[in-house]
Design goal:
The complex is a heterodimer of chains A (about 425) and B (about 220). Chain A is built from 11 helices and 15 strands. With about 425 residues, chain A is of the alpha+beta class. Chain A has a 7-stranded mixed sheet, sandwiched between helices. A 5-stranded mixed sheet of chain A has the order 5-6-7-2-12, with helices on one face. Chain A has a 3-stranded antiparallel sheet with strand order 1-4-3, with no helix packed on it. In chain A, a hairpin with a 4-residue loop joins strand 3 and strand 4. The longest helix of chain A is centred in the first third of the chain and has 18 residues, at about 120-140. The N and C termini of chain A lie far apart (about 55 Å). The relative contact order of chain A is 0.19. Chain B is flat, with a radius of gyration of 30 Å. Chain B is mainly alpha-helical. Chain B has a 3-stranded antiparallel sheet with strand order 2-1-3, with no helix packed on it. The chains are: A alpha+beta (about 425), B mainly alpha (about 220). At the A-B interface, strand 8, helix 11 and strand 15 of A face strand 2 and helix 7 of B. Strand 15 (about 420-425) of chain A pairs parallel with strand 2 (about 10) of chain B, so a sheet runs across the interface.
């Protein structure tokens, strides 16, 4: 076994692109936060994170440049938590963060983790946050038990937690690249200084589930369809004579592949499926959008298609010429590839982290969870969903001033008589 | 809790307006309520970009004045190149020696390389018939850099892995004066041989005492 100081990891397939394309405008970070029932003690939180990092060596890393690829190298520097600032999911300054690729933030009763996407996906970050909360509460002297649901410092990390699961499920025979059309891009005025606005709506989980059941769709399908419909109503309807408005509305939905292929990895193991609907008409109804989304999900959430998508992505990485290109040039190739292939094919991203289930002993101390994705110049409005206990938090992050899409989205629920509580960082105050 | 009549939402905030429709909110919020997200702030104008602009302007202004003066005096020699290259060198020194976020070893190796290039340029500009820059200055600078990296490695032992490749880079560079000597481009053998010898010994020391680290470092750096 390698000694700790010598530990290093190759970047996983999905993670390889992010360090080459991140910028002030496209930070590729996300935040997961939990509100406790009491004010957070920063000294104890610092001790907790120091202890937890030993359990998660995968996160105790820094990004280093090899001759051909970037890699994660063990980070000897201390990790320091910080107080939450108004900047949300902004470009991570690794240098000022002791080269760590994530931040632990606190404010009042909130503990938040902001993570650079190259390190892990939502599932990895949730596991990490749960462990941190558990350790924090334990250090505070509360009687909490992991109940085999939380990774604690009492257990050793396993190799499966670091594996690049994408490579395991790569199928050479099923890796056909399907050409995609450009997507409709949300229009708006950028917020100053690359800031991110946040509007989060909190709904009762049962009310929402009942609504989904009446339509015979899943929570994700309903939210995706409603977001598409909100884009249509606020940006496309009655403007169909414009050429750009004839492009299909495509919503990217990251799918947690662990639900389809067994894996315990904490690293990126998700793949996006996309809805695809040309909305250049003046009389589209919500139910029509919902049915289309349902059909899109049905087509794309099949094992063969998911493997094809995994294999398509891994195949790029396996191109010998690309592998042998020095990193100094590869950076520009990947950047150009992302600009031409990746960034223009997406209208919006919606990520559903799912339901957070904590051990019974932790529940009295944790009030709620919420999640936010960075928005940028390409994907101007994004949405992330998380549910805990009887609350479901639907969080929109946006790099533009206009909030029409969010307004249309949440008014849909209030019109149906479902209570919505809003939380926001009031970014428009800057204007 | 406050409410928005138009959107029919509830919101816990000290702010007056609905974040969705920007209409006035009704109701009150608890006295000791703290906003979930910190209040946004106007970005503070950084001083550095303006300073940078002034220095850049001065630099380009000086370069242009030098070129124009050179052309105006109808001198056959391009003497203005010397101060211009020196200014460029100064900028490279600031960029790679001071502002760079790389390791000390990288900075030292970088500064050495650009300093050698500057000295060779000055030498070739006919200030002297003798190739003193390659004969003496280059081997001396390479040895100094090599010993400096080795000293830093020795002091900061925990991080010695980081410096291995810079040491290797200096070793490769130290072969250059030796090659030049064998091709009779430079006359003085002693400085070149000494530089190569010192570089070889330091590298050998690391290879023998830290063989495992070298192997791991090679794996990391060259993985495809």
């Amino acid at each position: 076994m390698k000694d700790k100081a010598n530990k290093w990891y190759k970047l996983d397939n999905s993670g390889k692109i992010f360090p080459n394309v991140y910028s002030k405008r496209e930070s590729h970070t996300f935040r997961i936060q939990a509100s406790l029932t009491e004010v957070v003690n920063p000294e104890i939180l610092q001790v907790a994170i120091n202890q937890i990092l030993e359990r998660f060596p995968m996160f105790k890393v820094r990004l280093k440049r090899g001759l051909f690829w970037l890699y994660f190298d063990n980070n000897d520097r201390p990790f320091v938590i910080s107080e939450m600032s108004y900047k949300l999911c902004s470009k991570m300054d690794f240098h000022h963060n002791n080269n760590y690729l994530f931040k632990v933030l606190y404010r009042n009763n909130v503990i938040a983790i902001e993570m650079f996407h190259a390190l892990a996906d939502g599932k990895g970050a949730v596991d990490f946050l749960e462990s941190l909360i558990f350790q924090y509460l334990k250090l505070k002297g509360y009687s909490v038990t992991p109940d085999n649901m939380i990774k604690t410092i009492a257990e050793l990390p396993t190799n499966e937690e670091y594996e690049d699961a994408n490579k395991i499920y790569f199928d050479k025979q099923n890796r056909k690249r399907i050409k995609e059309d450009k997507a409709y891009r949300i229009q708006g005025t950028f917020l100053p200084n690359d800031n991110t606005g946040l509007i989060s709506g909190i709904l009762n989980t049962q009310d929402f589930l009942n609504l989904c059941r009446t339509k015979g769709v899943s929570v994700t399908q309903y939210i995706v369809a409603l977001a598409m419909y909100s884009i249509y109503v606020t940006q496309i309807r009655y403007r169909t004579h414009l050429k750009s408005h004839n492009n299909p509305v495509k919503v990217s939905i990251p799918v947690n592949l662990r639900n389809y292929f067994p894996s315990k990895t904490l690293r990126n193991f998700s793949n996006v499926i996309k809805t695809n609907l040309v909305m250049a008409a003046d009389n589209i109804e919500f139910d029509y959008v919902l049915n289309t989304v349902k059909e899109n999900f049905k087509e794309k959430l099949v094992k063969e298609e998911l493997i094809r998508k995994i294999s398509e992505n891994v195949a790029y990485e396996k191109i010998l010429l690309l592998r042998l290109t020095p990193m100094i040039l590869k950076k520009y190739i990947l950047k150009a590839g992302y600009q031409f292939l990746g960034s223009k094919l997406n209208t919006m991203s919606i990520s559903n982290i799912g339901r957070i289930t904590l051990p019974e002993s932790l529940k009295p101390y944790v009030k709620d969870f919420s999640v936010a994705m960075g928005a940028g110049s390409n994907s101007k409005v994004n949405c992330a969903i998380i549910s805990y206990d009887d609350r479901i938090a639907i969080t929109f992050t946006s790099s533009i001033i206009e909030t029409h899409i969010q307004k249309e989205f949440f008014r849909h629920f209030t019109d149906l008589g479902i209570d919505v509580t809003i939380e926001s960082n009031y970014m428009e105050r800057l204007l | 809790m406050k409410t928005c009549d138009k959107c029919k939402i509830t919101i816990n905030t000290t702010f007056e307006y609905c974040p969705l429709c920007h209409q006035s909110l009704k109701g009150d919020v608890e006295k000791d309520f703290i906003e979930i997200y910190p209040k946004t702030q106007k970005a503070i104008r950084e001083i550095l970009p303006i300073t940078k602009k002034i220095i850049f302007f001065t630099t380009f202004f000086v370069i242009l004045v030098l070129i124009m003066t050179n052309l105006f005096v109808h001198d056959d020699s391009m003497w203005s190149l010397l101060p211009i290259v020196s200014i460029v060198w100064f900028w490279l020194l600031i960029r790679f020696g001071v502002l760079s976020r790389n390791t000390v070893a990288f900075k030292m190796a970088g500064i050495t390389v650009i300093l050698i290039l500057l000295i060779i340029f000055i030498n070739l500009n006919k200030f002297s018939e003798d190739l003193w820059s390659i004969n003496y200055a280059m081997p001396a600078l390479l040895t100094a850099c090599n010993l400096a990296i080795f000293t830093v490695m020795w002091i900061r032992r925990l991080n010695y892995r980081e410096y291995l490749f810079h040491l290797l880079m200096v070793f490769i560079l130290s072969i250059i004066p030796l090659i030049l000597y064998f091709f009779n481009i430079i006359e003085s053998a002693l400085p070149s041989i000494l530089t190569f010898g010192i570089s070889s010994i330091t590298l050998l020391f690391v290879l023998i005492f830290y063989p495992k680290s070298i192997k791991e470092e090679i794996k990391k750096t060259f993985h495809i």
